[in-house]
Predict the 3D structure of the following.
Amino acid sequence: MRLLLQLLLLLSLLTSCADPAPAEPPADDDDSSDDDDSSDDDDSADDDDDSAEPPDLDWDDDGLPNEFEDQIGTDPTRPDSDSDGYDDGDEYLNYFLPNDPGDYPYIGGYPRGPFEEAYSGEGFEPGQLSATWSHLDQYGQELQLHRFAGNVVLIYIDYEDAPGLGHIAPEVEAIYQARRSEGFVVLHFLTAGLFGPAGYGPPFAQRYIEEHGLTFPVFEHPAPSPIATNYHLSPFVPHWTLLNRDLRIVVPSLSGHNDWPAVLGEIDVLLAEPAPDVGWPLPR
Ligand SMILES: [Ca+2]
Ligand SMILES: [Ca+2]
Ligand SMILES: [Ca+2]
Ligand SMILES: [Ca+2]
């Protein structure tokens, strides 16, 4: 009996050796299944390179180093992380959002500064954060006020008709061109003009822009015009409100040609003030 058991055990061992169970391949074998052994050697060489990676290495050539992309949450292997047609560096370094496909550099090239997306306005009175709003410009882009933080912002309200003194829009364009590189933005509401044979009637941005050679954003803003009214428009145009780089209302209401020199003086003062310190780190 004992001999029989030993024979059975021996037979069992022999069977096991002849038909072994398949072993679990190491994870690396999966990766190298299509490659020869030399490719594994190449991989280990890459690993060595990674450990010695210079801090400014930019795999996807989008203007942002790999380490920095890790920091801000963009993809270091894709130049256009959000697939909106603009490279991560072109967006982020100009204060646009590289992980938001609905936000990208403006047609018209309006400047931005570093801003906080969580910005939320308080109201329209002096010293308050100007309550945020959005409006379509002449290119059909939805511009949101809070994303212009970091700039001095001139809210300019006017209509197309210019009885008497001629139109001041070309002078506003001239100061925009002269100061925009310092962080100066004009947001212009074109409201309903005079009706009847002597007036233009409903706002028509393209005609107005071509007549005066304007490059800043123009919003067709027909009556009743709630945003313009919030900025204390009363009762005549041209009308101006000035916001500092924090978007706080500094000058709530100036109007008429006589107040234009005062507007220019305030722009000087506000542009000399430092930009707010917000969380927009830049690469070293
Ligand atoms: Ca990169
Ligand atoms: Ca990238
Ligand atoms: Ca993009
Ligand atoms: Ca984007």
